[in-house]
Design brief:
With 562 residues, the protein is mainly β. The chain is built from five helices and 43 strands. The strands form 15 sheets. Strands 3, 4, 6, 8, 12 and 14 form a six-stranded antiparallel sheet that branches.
Length: 562
């Protein structure tokens, strides 16, 4: 609080409420001769130029550390490391010097002065739209030490951009000193969410560099860290799992609402392949102490517990051979040893359309085992005795052609069916089949459908259940349409928590999208992107909804007819 307080309120204590926090403020007069100034400003004319209300142009090479920390900018990269920091200076560099300045709220590049024995330097602006080279007010983009070392710019820097200064020189060594780097930035009050400030307030580091959420729906995630500048504006409150943090002026102030030693509920997912998967957790809230994250443990993804196509489906029956037999096969390839030991992969049957050959002198009568008996079996009867037909509720009507053609073979007794191994078992012990009706599931086998859902092969059939006290995320929905009809907009997609143990929770993912260049509207007329108009001196092109004009050396294009 910077107040020019009258004597009438000196030493009085006033209650201020910011967000959900209360502050008792006592007003004191400054010492005699002292002056006050707004945070982030300086009284030196050589360092600060006032360009417009709320905008200041600072030579960041001349600012003290305290002053530099009060502007929304940071030097995120210096390669190689300089010999001197104030100002930045390299005495004998043997490689390109690269300086990266981050401007999360944007600004304007005003002036740069580099002195030394270097050869040249260039300025680039990098953001999500790519990288572009910056020209000075004279239209030049390649600056050499032989010309004037100081260059003046009027380059608007979009939000979230990096200004990259690259200085080049001879490989046998060169010197360079950035005597001036003047940038105009909005003088908003903000807090820098670096690790030191966060730890100072909370005494722990929130997990995944997520401090919490802001916004009316509490869906905007706020990050913190040291690899880039994370600014938050004055008065903004960030909500974590057990705390709230508010930016007051330039200071981050946090208080704990609940016991941060008690961790929130989370959802567990198994991530990885069938041989090397580990558990990961997703919390239903953001801003969670890192100590709440359990160590990853080995796990088996759901798709690895279900016998998907193991063995493969049966092949079509072969043509009948000279012995009135036909055959079919299936494979246990890539299914493991358990498949080969538990499933037969070939079957042979008498062809239903053949006439049984006359008996030979050598007996070929089948020997029937327990729960089966020898009889002349029609194709329809053989089909109806299969476990697969019983479980699937299928019909064999296409085989019931009204003929009495039959083959002597072993038929299962009443209330018995032939299982996938060719054995006659009680019908309640038949294998089951999954929803696709193609994969056999052995009796009592459990199939994991999801973290909270499973199915079992039981005497009554293939039944699915939900686990109690379990909650998991649904799959992401499809992306919505782009919010913009031209230019840059955003699109969203959602997923929800599901399960018997869930409180309804929705997660929203937002990303930018491009809907193509916007047209230009000039005096009520629409110009398509790329269209041009001109006069005797200029040619103007419609780009991204605005006219981009430049001086012409050749005959101009005509204006539109009225």
């Amino acid at each position: 609080f910077n107040l020019n307080a009258p004597k009438s309120i000196l030493d009085e204590t006033t209650l201020y409420v910011v967000g959900q926090k209360e502050y008792l403020v006592t007003v004191k007069r400054c010492e005699e001769g002292a002056t006050t100034q707004a945070p982030g400003t300086t009284t030196s004319p050589a360092q600060t130029t006032q360009t417009s209300p709320g905008i200041e142009c600072d030579d960041i090479m001349s600012l003290t550390n305290e002053e530099f920390n009060r502007i929304p900018a940071s030097i995120s990269s210096l390669k190689p490391h300089p010999d001197n920091m104030k100002p930045l200076e390299w005495l004998a560099a043997t490689e390109d010097i690269v300086v990266v300045v981050q401007l999360p709220v944007g600004g304007e590049l005003n002036a740069i002065d580099v002195i030394g024995t270097y050869v040249s330097y260039i300025i680039e602006v990098e953001n999500e739209n790519g990288k572009s080279t910056v020209k000075n007010v004279e239209g030049s983009s390649d600056f050499t030490s032989e010309k004037s070392t100081r260059n003046v710019f009027k380059e608007d820097i979009p939000e979230g951009s990096n200004v990259i200064l690259t200085i080049q020189g001879p490989v046998d060594g060169f010197s360079a000193k950035i005597a001036e780097l003047r940038i105009c930035i909005d003088t908003l009050e903000f807090c820098s969410l670096n690790s030191a400030n966060v730890f100072k307030e909370l005494a722990f580091f929130p997990a995944d560099n997520i401090l919490g959420v802001v916004g009316p729906e509490n869906v905007t995630v706020v990050l913190y860290g040291d690899d880039q500048l994370y600014p938050i504006e004055d008065g903004v409150t960030i909500f974590g799992f057990c705390y709230e943090c508010t930016c007051l002026g330039y200071d981050l102030m946090c208080f704990k609402k609940t016991n941060c030693d008690e961790c929130p509920d989370y959802y567990t997912e198994c991530v990885g392949n069938c041989t090397d998967a580990k558990t990961t957790v997703t919390f239903a809230t953001q801003g969670v102490p890192a100590s709440c994250i359990p160590d990853p443990t080995p796990c088996t993804p759901e798709e690895c517990t279900t016998p998907h196509n193991c063995p493969t489906p049966w092949s079509p029956w072969s043509n009948c051979d000279h012995k009135c037999q036909h055959h079919r096969e299936r494979s246990c390839e890539d299914c493991g040893v358990s498949c080969e030991s538990n499933y037969n992969t070939t079957e042979t049957e008498s062809c239903p359309s053949c006439t049984t050959p006359a008996p030979s002198t050598t007996s070929t009568t089948p020997v029937c085992v327990e729960n089966s008996f020898l009889t002349c079996v029609t194709p329809f009867e053989a089909c109806m005795s299969e476990c697969s037909v019983f479980r699937k509720g299928s019909a064999c009507n296409n085989l019931d052609n009204g003929t009495d053609t039959c083959v002597d073979k072993c038929q299962c007794a009443d209330n018995y069916k032939r299982n996938m191994f060719g054995q006659c078992v009680p019908s309640v012990e038949c294998e089951c089949y999954d929803g696709a009706m193609t994969t056999p599931i052995p009796l009592t086998y459990t199939v994991t459908i999801g973290m909270c859902e499973y199915c079992e092969c039981e005497a009554s059939g293939y039944n699915c259940y939900e686990r109690n006290d379990c909650c998991e995320w649904s799959d992401w929905a499809d992306w919505s349409d782009c919010s913009a009809t031209c230019g840059v907009g955003h699109r969203t997609r959602e997923r929800t928590s599901k399960g018997l143990g869930c409180n309804p929770t929705e997660a929203i993912l937002i990303e930018s999208c491009e809907a193509g260049e916007c047209p230009c509207e000039i005096d009520g007329k629409i110009m398509n992107p790329g269209e041009t108009v001109g006069d005797q001196c200029h040619v103007c092109t419609c780009r991204n909804g605005q006219l981009d004009c430049e001086t012409m050396d050749e005959e101009p294009l005509p204006w539109y007819d009225e």
